[in-house]
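step: validate -> pass
step: tokenize input -> pass
step: predict -> running
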Amino acid sequence: MNDSLERTARITESLKSLGLTKYEALVYIALLRFEGATATEIHEISGVPRASVYPVLDKLLNKNITAVSNTTPKRFSAACPDEAIKTLLSSIKKDAECAKEELNKIYERRESHEKGQQELIWTIYGNENITAKTIEIISKAENEIRLILGYDIISRNLREILSSPDRKASATIITNEWKGEIPDNCTIWIIEKDIEPEMKLEGKYAGICIVDDSKVLVSMDPPDDRANALFSESNGFVRFFNTYWYYITSHITKQHIAECISS
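step: predict -> pass
step: emit ->
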């Protein structure tokens, strides 16, 4: 395979990730090389089967990355790459927003129908997914939020949720430091040293989030940096970590506390 064919293959794969089919990508690349080509010329240049050229051109026209003349025979040209990529990305973003909206509707309906399966314990992988789940359950809290975690893993989005004027639940946070204003209806215990038994607060991911005495998210701090967490609404799981919370807080003494602040 020569350099030109290898380059075309690489570009084709990239365009496929933007929503084009192989034939659409090949036709678009051909039109960039030869402006004003007829369908027959496009077939010869691109290698796309003759019977497929017109259907492909129709799709590219609908995607607004090609133009057609009013002459006979018709001639076609490609939008410049900057505009074409911008158009394709805009289409992907629009489709993604539509999909997210519909999927959220399905997800909300699933939540309302599966309350009888609360004995399940779910494993969540990846720091972004763990953060998203933490924000989700905290944003829906109605009565009380309790957190044990290092300040370096308190994301900007989490601070915004805690500072939201719409937050109804009170919040108690055990952490190793706090920067900035204290959110309303929030108490922060700043721990100067690790609590006995060992409860380190400087890990990248480790933490406990208890919401409304009904939901618990426990994130791990594994040695290989592959963040994972357990989430459950199981009565036994929640009861265990409620007991753990009270055990930890009962062992916090003056030697551990650097500062206790509240709004």
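step: describe -> The first strand starts at residue 66 and ends at 68.
step: cleanup -> pass
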